[in-house]
Amino acid sequence: LNMIKKLMIFIPSYKAQRTICSVIERIPEDIKKKVKEIIVFDDDSPDDSYKVLLNYKKKKKMNKLKVYKNKKNLGFGGNIKAGFDYAIKNNMDIMVILHSDGQYPSEKIGNLIKPIEDNEAQTTFGSRFLGDPIKGGMPLWRYLGNIFLTRIENFLVGQKFSEWHSGFTAYDCNVLKKLPIKSCVTGYELTTDILLLFIANDFTVKEIPIETHYGKESTSPSIKRTFLYFLYSTKLAFLFFLNRIGILNVKKYKKQ
Known about the structure:
This protein has 256 residues and is of the alpha/beta class. Helix content is 40%, strand content 14%.
């Protein structure tokens, strides 16, 4: 039987005062018992997220909940990198990334970490495209864009994922330690970059189906930002492709 692994749930938070407490509330009781720490890095939000969280922690007497406020805004990818550092420094075994806007289901954390606990995968992500994203309120332009981008990336990287752009992910921290995470990008496309590192090193990636939820509170990026994300993600996959076929030597995508 496996030793109980040290689990950390990491919530990168920005301007999430209205949603963050319910995201934590929705984490199932068995996971709350099992988790070592629930870490929130508030990315220097201009709203009251940090205060709201501290009050919530006090009211709920949640010792496992640790709330930090970044001294300056690190951006989405920068904040997640800080979370990776924290997980590695504190010898965690599994790290889950859970968004603070309620778009991803806290209820599914158990399903997300199971393949890693069972040593069947080293990273997992929740795919909205194994379910019905349109029913969950995903805007049609994002739905079509996502399918198009996923096809391109699957082709370039040689994979068959149902989607590439989930923010609901879990990682085996013992693998994270070995990968050149510092060399990854700091934008929203960080999750794509990390995924490429796992693939480059022949680690197993698993998808689990999740429902999609786009409420009024969900932070959907603007069309401009989505387009830039689209370009950057494609560029990463293309670099991976050039490295894969031996045209270009991309150091971070070399086997470690």
